Amino acid sequence: MDISKREAGPYSRHVRSLDGLRGMAVLAVMASHLFPGTTADRGFFLRSIGSSLRFGATGVDLFFVLSGFLITGILYDSLSDTGYFRKFYARRCLRIFPLYYGVLIVLFVFTPWLRIHWQHMQWSLLFYLQNTNAVMPLYRWHAGRVSIDHFWSLAVEEQFYLVWPLAVFLLRSRKKILWASVTLSVAALLLRLSLAFHHTIFHVINRTTPCRADSLLIGAMLAILLRGSLHDVVLRYARPVFLWTVAITAGLNLLRIAIERHPDWLFPFDASYLALRYTLFAFGSAALIAWCLRPSSVPRALFERPVLRFFGKYSYGLYVLHLIILSLVLAPVREWIDQHTGHKIIGVLGGAVVIFLLSVPAAYLSYNLYEKRFLGLKRYFEYSRPSHAASKTETAAARKAVSST
């Protein structure tokens, strides 16, 4: 259709359940970090907690899919807007840069006290290239008393934001954007499979943008499908797709455990599992997002709860700050509790509570006292109001979709 007549997409407006979903994602990531591995010396109970909460890392996959979904929707809906690139990048920078670079400045200033050995990593961090440094990747870099290991995911998103707006602008039509998303997602999966079978280090498979782009692109697919004739079909099948994805993932995990105990059964399974799991997590996340958009659905009711929406509102600050706080505070807190109680379980649980109680106020204060000052500048980069001259078909589809959100 004529770009000048494009109606705003059905999910251009704020969707409360997605705030709650974002809140669940950040809580899952925090949980996986608050009980890191919970080593063997802490007993069966704590090892079980640590093993269970490792799946909290899938919150990162959910963040990726959410980002791809929301960003692609914004880009597609604003194709007819003057200042397409300027407005998009200005709004992204105002949301992301202040906290990210603010944290880096603080770390640079306090380098001597925190005993940080940058080893030239600061240059990668300044340009969002921390996930591309094969010589000294973040997961092998020990920054003194501070951990910013989780910043790799911010680099993946920023690199995606750098190229995807141009792709959407050039492709323009829903069909072309959808097929590009499908093609590039398959390419990312095949790349992971190839690298895994060639025993490439985990960092490259797990943290580089070409290997992880499918999570963002699957979110992009969902955004495009919900703006077309398949809208109702996508929402109708969201629940079974999500449940089947969970079942398949669980089955693969059980198979992985069995093969680890009997390595002579089959070919090495870790490689294919490592490559496939991100695609499964991404499809499950996309299905969960679509399920949240269905009227009267259980996930929608759950994720519209104020407590989850609260954590969703402050999810960016929580994600950026919690691991820094953890790396500074967790070890001495656990040691103090262990010494005064003699119970390692209390030390682990108490340490997690302390980190949580420090991280939430830190994110709240960061948002309200610092980040909001920059977010207020978004008013100078508002997108134009949608055209009322849209075709009858697209207008009807958009109205129907909006009524269901």
From TrEMBL:
Domain Acyltransferase: from-to ranges: 16-364
Top-level lineage group: Bacteria
Entry-linked Pfam families: Acyl_transf_3
Keyword set, alphabetical order: Acyltransferase, Membrane, Transferase, Transmembrane, Transmembrane helix
Chain ranges passing through the membrane: 20-35, 55-76, 97-116, 151-170, 177-195, 215-234, 241-259, 271-293, 314-333, 345-370
CC terms in the record's Gene Ontology section: membrane
GO biological process: polysaccharide biosynthetic process
One GO MF term: acyltransferase activity, transferring groups other than amino-acyl groups
Protein's UniProt name: Acyltransferase
Highest classification ranks of the organism: Bacteria, Pseudomonadati, Acidobacteriota, Terriglobia, Terriglobales
